[in-house]
Protein: Heme chaperone HemW
Amino acid sequence: MPSVLPLGDPAPADGLLPPQAAAGAQDRDFCLYVHIPFCSVRCGYCDFNTYTAKELGSGASQDEYAGTLNAELELAAKVLPASGLPRRPLSTVFFGGGTPTLLPASDLAAILGRATELWGLAPEAEVTTEANPDSVTPESLQILAAAGFTRVSFGMQSAVPHVLKVLDRTHNPERVPQAVRWAREAGLHVSLDLIYGTPGESVADWEASLDAAIACGPDHISAYALIVEEGTKLAAQIRRGEVPGIDDDDHATKYELAEGRLAAAGYGWYEVSNWARTEADRCRHNLSYWRGDDWWGAGPGAHSHMGGVRWWNVKHPAAYGQRLSTGVSPAAGRETLDAATRQLEHVMLQTRIIDGLRTQELGPNGRKAVAGLIADGLVDGPAAFAGTVRLTLQGRLLADAVVRRLLED
Structure:
């Protein structure tokens, strides 16, 4: 089942935000995340807020979803100025899920069109949709490009059939280069998402997946270590001994292999799990998350953030639609982060990216810890001497441990 929403304070029915959300907003980018909760099948490793048609039943029609989603965008366009936030054009828009491209391309275009009418797009705005390779056609990608989408992120995950089977992925590996070619022909930038560490995946399997992804020539590649979430089918399979568990050493070996292969092919890391050909090819939407910008998350279970105020919507599409149909905000709860929590998150997220964290942003003990981290090979020495904490390859493998040492009292 989908993951549980966090605890928090009740969110008001009108959706209005506290004053903290508006403080300094003119200096932050404004982004939009659009959650499309539909999938053709539930992958065994996934705990995202997604649903198949059988799970949804009546009351949450895919046919009506674009209209329901646009109702939240219209609510947002009222809530933000009423809460004191300035009108800002959208720097990035990201359609995630689920499988956004299970909706007709015309519906995705209509959602983007309404967002553009309400806020406008900044010059050179990045507009991305996630997609499964078997959920697109040349025609659908052409429609998306014509509507203003600039980028598509395909869930490749692996090029090896037995690994895809464990993950419950439905596409044929041969479909990936075909989908990439169609996207290129439509004028879209392309990212490929990979997962490593799947039970039963050998090092040779992972090498094959990396080589297949590189051969497609995408602008951007993400490589995520498989995390086994409680409540998923995969977690139950591991618990019953049907498939082997996760091995941290195997993850480390495969991460180092990814760095070597991708660097040799001309991809540079810019976040622990992400590589791009050039700085312009980096995913600006995800960078906005890591840098603490503002975003409105639309859709069931979607999370939003404005100036240290975080809130999240009700999870089920039927409940989400019912609230909007009665003029009530779909927000289920929210929290206002205090200064200490914001500092913790800033250190944790900024350390993950290649820009690094300015040493002066650390407390006295954190600054003292930097020398030991350099000695341990976890932080780049020349960068630190120039005033920036930047992870080495070994530091990326142990990023959480680095953050703990930087935040020690």
